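REQUEST ID: PR-0412
SUBMITTED BY: lab tech R.K.
PRIORITY: routine
TASK: structure prediction, single protein chain
INPUT:
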Amino acid sequence: MNTIKTVLITGANKGIGYETARQLGRLGYRIWFGCRDAARGEAAMKSLVSEGHDVRLLPIDVSQDESVRAAAARVRDEDGRLDVLINNAGIPGGPHTTPSQQRIDSIRAVYETNVFGPIRVTQAFVPLLKSAGQGAVVMVSSGLGSLGWLSDPANQFYGVNILGYNSSKSALNAVAVAFAKELASVGIKVDAVDPGYTATDFNNHSGYRTVEQAAAGIVWLATQDPAGPSGRFYFEQNQIPW
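STATUS: complete
OUTPUT:
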């Protein structure tokens, strides 16, 4: 059975997910390179392989049950375990408007990927995380999901009032807490992380942080001792309010 540490990163073909894969590859992890678009994922994966990283393309659409089940079956058949799961795939939704005007179908689409997707993937991969003996699940959230920050007039995010996206990340944080409570007894640590306002396609490269900075926080959390505190929310290695 494989003894190399393995990690699955959803939404890995670009931006923060891609850089997270690169940084974990440098630490010797085998990367399960999760992406919805196999063609786009193949090109991105080859770039990492050319750098010497151990990367395997894993087509996975987090919004589709069958796709997630097939991905879990492949990892089970080829590795028999998973050490780290990073739920990174997400969408911003749009167009952004006032909460009273945002369409329900738009909000529903955001939740399908940002909330139900991580639930679906985590449920499917829990048996493989258990097979590893101990492990970690990282929910890539956002400071816009922090109710503490959003309700503080002095916080930089106070004026960003996007009903669908913000609430989906608040919900994701609650999902992290729920899984953390269940899985602590079997040595699986579950936390959420805010990568910060990062310049990616997600926001038309308007963010002030680099993907390297954003990924560093995710990698730090993914590589913490699974026996440590679980069910926390972090930014820049510091705990932040839910």
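NOTES: The chain has one domain: 6-239.
REVIEWED BY: pending
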